[in-house]
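User: what does the whole thing look like in 3D?
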Amino acid sequence: DQQVKQNSPSLSVQEGRISILNCDYTNSMFDYFLWYKKYPAEGPTFLISISSIKDKNEDGRFTVFLNKSAKHLSLHIVPSQPGDSAVYFCAARRGSGGYQKVTFGTGTKLQVIP
Amino acid sequence: GAVVSQHPSWVICKSGTSVKIECRSLDFQATTMFWYRQFPKQSLMLMATSNEGSKATYEQGVEKDKFLINHASLTLSTLTVTSAHPEDSSFYICSAPRRPTSGRTYNEQFFGPGTRLTVL
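Assistant: Here's the predicted 3D structure for the full assembly of 234 residues, as structure tokens:
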């Protein structure tokens, strides 16, 4: 049962334009949602998170939107840069500290074309 | 930011041998560490939660006798794949949560760079 889904395995965007990565989830118990960036042969790097009680969080070029009624979140990158090319994982968390469990989506490979 | 290291970064072994993977938190103490496994084109799957000074908690379907976890100190957790078989070939990643720094409420998980295991 895939509780966190990223339906687009890949996305290509022109440099300077907006990249929108989407994620859907099924479990209402998740309390935090996160986006990670991953390069090949490296571990994921935390990008941005959003609490389930908010609908938007912004950090520089990255904005995450959460629509709880639709169980959907999205990551917007504006403007996109070639260095943003990587695999982006959506993740959702239940619990906290040592009792937290993070469930990952399958990832979306973003390619930003110069 | 916080750094989590893993060793080795890649390993090739023969079927039936055991392989130990180390995960270290370099600039913070971690009473808990997490072990994930990622198969090609799939998401990271949580295997187990490693607890310092106590037994690890395994996710459903993960054999605890096959994947031995030891968390002997606040900065080191080890995963030993015992009697490895080709189907155990995967990318193993550990992570450790750190307490929130000022301005954050989320205790962020920091991931190691991963270990690529290939069992022949």
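In plain terms: Chain A has no helices and eleven strands. Chain A touches chain B through 25 residues (CB under 8 Å).
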